[in-house]
Write a structure and sequence with these properties.
This protein is mostly beta strands. The protein contains no helices and seven strands. It has a four-stranded antiparallel beta sheet, with no helix packed on it. A three-stranded antiparallel beta sheet has the order 1-2-3, with no helix packed on it. The radius of gyration is 17 Å and the shape is elongated. The protein starts with a strand and ends with a strand.
C-alpha cells in the first residue's frame, strides 16, 4: 500500500482524534494505521506494481457502448469526488470526448 495522508481524522473519531496514517492498499481499499509502530505499519520491501500503460498511450476502454478508443492522460489518478477518493490506475480521455477512470 501507500500512505496517502498523515494525521488522518474522520467525523466518527472521538474528540477530533487523528491517526498517524491513512493507507491506500494495492487493492484500492483505504485503511488507517492507529499507531506509528512497526507492529502496526512499516516500510514495504515489495517493489511497486508497474502499470501497463503510460501517459500518452493509445488504449481501448470497455464502456457501456462497448470498446472505445482513447488516450491515457494521467496515471495513479485520485480525485476526492471520484470513487470516494480512491486512486485509480488510469484517467483516460476517450476519442468521443468523455473522460473515464
Amino acid at each position: 500500500g501507500q500512505v496517502v495522508r498523515k494525521w488522518y481524522t474522520e467525523e466518527e473519531f472521538e474528540n477530533g482524534h487523528a491517526v498517524p496514517y491513512q493507507v491506500l492498499l494495492d487493492s484500492g481499499d483505504f485503511i488507517y494505521a492507529p499507531l506509528d509502530d512497526d507492529d502496526c505499519i512499516k516500510r514495504s520491501t515489495a517493489p511497486p506494481v508497474p502499470l501497463r500503460f503510460d501517459v500518452g498511450d493509445r488504449v481501448s476502454c470497455k464502456v457501456e457502448e462497448g470498446w472505445t478508443p482513447g488516450m491515457v492522460i494521467n496515471t495513479q489518478y485520485r480525485d476526492e469526488g471520484v470513487h470516494g477518493g480512491r486512486v485509480v490506475p488510469y484517467e483516460i480521455k476517450l476519442d468521443m470526448g468523455d473522460i473515464v477512470y
